[in-house]
Amino acid sequence: INFFQRISLAFRGLTDLASAQALWQPPSNQITELDLSGNCLTDASLRELARLPRLDTLVLDGNRLTCLAHLPNLPRLRVLWLNRNSLHNLADCVHRLIRCCPSLASLSMMDNPAAPSYFNGASYQEYEDYSARAFPRIVLAPPGQGRTESL
């Protein structure tokens, strides 16, 4: 029996995670990797992630996220991709991630207004410096490098 499941619900036009639950084949307590890229998820929809206690990897690239205020505690989350959203306040995002994701080891927030990068007139070095101060143990994705493995 495989107790650890990868689920991809990418590019399905999802606006909330409650409707996505009907698409999950394994029970939510068995999902360890979830790809929700390219949907229409908003900040409030993040609350539903609390139903995924074993979540280790989460990809939320290309959604409509503006903040992480509704991100629940995800103590096992190690990998988080938030690229191409509309996250505006880097300090708020960092503080929320520190509090909610104590195991976080890999973070990518490229192409967000909050993340200093060449996408918004800053350098990748500025993004890396800020994130390294906030998350000393985190590995950041180099510029131009996406996921090496798709979910």
TrEMBL record:
It comes from the Eukaryota. Keywords: Leucine-rich repeat, Repeat. It holds the Pfam family LRR_4. PANTHER family: LEUCINE-RICH MELANOCYTE DIFFERENTIATION-ASSOCIATED PROTEIN (PTHR46282), LEUCINE-RICH REPEAT-CONTAINING PROTEIN 72-LIKE (PTHR46282:SF1). InterPro entries: Leu-rich_rpt, Leu-rich_rpt_4, LRMDA, LRR_dom_sf. Gene3D superfamilies: Ribonuclease Inhibitor. This is Leucine-rich repeat-containing protein 51.
